Amino acid sequence: MAAPIELYFWPTPNGWKISIALEEMGLPYELKPVNIGRGEQFTPEFLRISPNNRMPAIVDPDGPAGSPISVFESGAILQYLGRKSGQFYPSDERSRVDVDQWLFWQMGGLGPMAGQASHFINYAPKIVDDPALIEYGRARYVNELNRLCGVMERRLGESAYLGGDEYSIADVASWPWARIAHKLGQSFDDFPKLKAWVDRIHERPAVQRALKAGDELRQKQDLSKDQVREMAKNLFGQTANSVNDAKSKQG
Ligand SMILES: N[C@@H](CCC(=O)N[C@@H](CS)C(=O)NCC(=O)O)C(=O)O
Question: Rounded mean pLDDT of 54-59?
């Protein structure tokens, strides 16, 4: 049996994209926790496989031609796993283009915008004392997320899944963010088709298994100001120096 794929993981929407895909595809994997609140994304070992100091990343010991390969960026990982397993990523060109469009839409739109909305709703109020300094950014990202939910609502009125009639890696990419839209300034009452799609995917056994994997790593949701400020030292305010400092330790 092939050695398990190593999944460099922390329980966040971007991490779940890959644990869901691995569970759906029935590929054996091993979780390698990367505690991003403690700065483990800057270790030299991790930067070698994920030069952007972000998780998720994978190492597949049984890569092309049987030799190991590492992949970072969740969209690239999903495409790799889809090609490797031949599942949830259609091989005929027309269907594949459909899936790719919605996958890239997630990578360039839904993920980053929902991530920023989450920052301004969940973290900024615990870091910045003056609410007036937060409001412009909060409204900008909550509104953009609202537009993106509208785009999904319209799409899901045309086809059962984002990438077409079949469940695919495009859904796997968007689901972990879409399912928390109600915590990011949106109301599912405005998006009934999106809500039905969120619920339908939530019921999938592979999705349930993926949500349980690494659950013990999850922090409690309501962090105190002090806990957020501590985490912020590693997570927010990163510059080119953050990577250069870590790289210089690489030797
Ligand atoms: N575009 C990246 C985004 C990944 C990402 O933002 N990961 C976050 C956690 S959700 C992270 O590792 N953050 C660590 C940091 O900001 O230093 C992907 O899709 O793989």
Answer: 98
Please state, in angstroms and rounded to a whole number, the distance separating the CA atoms of residues 179 and 13. 9
Q: Which fold has domain 5-87+209-237?
A: Glutaredoxin (3.40.30)
Residues within 6 Å of ligand 1 by CB = 12, 14, 36, 41, 53-56, 73-74, 111, 235
pLDDT band at residue 89, thresholds of 50, 70 and 90? Answer: very high
Cβ atoms of 98 and 163 within 8 Å: the answer is yes
> Which atom from ligand 1 is nearest to the alpha carbon of 12?
10
Domain 93-202 has CATH 1.20.1050.10: yes
Range scoring the smallest mean pLDDT among 41-45, 99-103, 119-123, 245-249: 245-249
Side chain identity at residue 231, one-letter code: M
pTM exceeding the 0.85 threshold for the entire prediction: yes
